[in-house]
Write the structure tokens for this entry.
Amino acid sequence: MIRCRSPFVAFAPYLVASALHLVLLYLGPAWSVTATKALLMPLLALAVVALVRPLRAPVPLLLAAIAFSWGGDVLLSFPGDGWFVAGLCSFLLAHVVYIVLFLRMPRTRRRPPAWSYAYWAWMIVMLGLLLPHAGMLAAPISLYAAAIGMMAMCASMHGRWIALGGAFFIVSDSVLALGRFLPGYEFAGHDFAVMSTYLAAQGLIAWGVVASKLAAPAAPDPLSPAPDRRADATAR
């Protein structure tokens, strides 16, 4: 695959498919919503691969997180608690990989900023609202809330794109969870709110990681002569 030098060109298929998916949420038919949703994460992964070659650390971790997210997208497209738990587990793995990714990447802050501790207050409030209605799903929901809270806090130690992506993930999953478990919680733009913030989160995180990688100085070629050493063998 040829490396793409334009971020706009690389991300264009993802952006177009995202816009199309959001429109189809209202226009349907249902199969088109499911089909476009299944295309979103592969197109995002394609953008990453097109911009960053060779695929050195931390890019494989980013691609793994996108792959687990794709699994969650597909599994959550099916009705029923079993599919929901499977999708939740896939997204849980995605957030675990994101946490590892953010901890391994060079950070702009050594510690999480003070405002990021609000994520834990969010987790307490959300669990207080959801757990009385979650039934047997209380344990997996609690585990997932802890994982996404930690992911967003780790994201806050990076630049604005990754930090904003983590925040959008919190918004998306909060709206999704409230719509599924909180009685009487309904509004017309629910699906749009969930998917628009989710797609923004994934895109911003991916771009943040790619931009960080592209801005990093290239590793020196171990086979090339050192700058202060003559390459001419006759100089010895």
